[in-house]
Write the structure tokens for this entry.
Amino acid sequence: MKQRCETEVKLRVKNLRQIKQRLRKCGFVAVIPRHFERNVIFDLPDRRLTRAGHLLRLRWARKEATLTFKGMAQRSARSKTRFELEARVPNGEALAAVFLRAGFQEVFRYEKFRTVYRRHLRRNKFERGSVMFDETPLGAYLELEGSQAWIDRTAHELGFGFAEYITASYGDLYRERCRARRWRSNEMTFRERRQR
């Protein structure tokens, strides 16, 4: 089981070719190749986890399932920091069935393709921060995780300013899109997007 505090921001990508060139130019290499992720957020019927600012997520990616609990986000003007507990689980489908039998509900599903980039410091050593390139039904985003100083420096190197920082979750971004377009959906999936 991994425990950590995670500081992150998202950045909306408008030009995919340009951002991939900038990542290479800045010395980032793909340490986890492009892969598909399927995520399900669970909560109790009274939404007590959501109301408390917590998140319980089951993710399937790269032939593995991972259970994640995130605590309430501490937001600053430029980032979001959350306590996170994470554990691999041998059978994600069985765990999802246990949650449903225990009274939890699926409250949000989302999908994305993700590539993880890191930058070498020296041979076999990487910087502490990571850049995730996410292709979602909402469009493409970079997610930067690291210290605030690392995030600010890396965002600047990649051509982004503070005004472009996004601290909202994919769920928040999707709900905002649904409200603006008067959609009703709790699935940010590629299939759902094709049906719109």
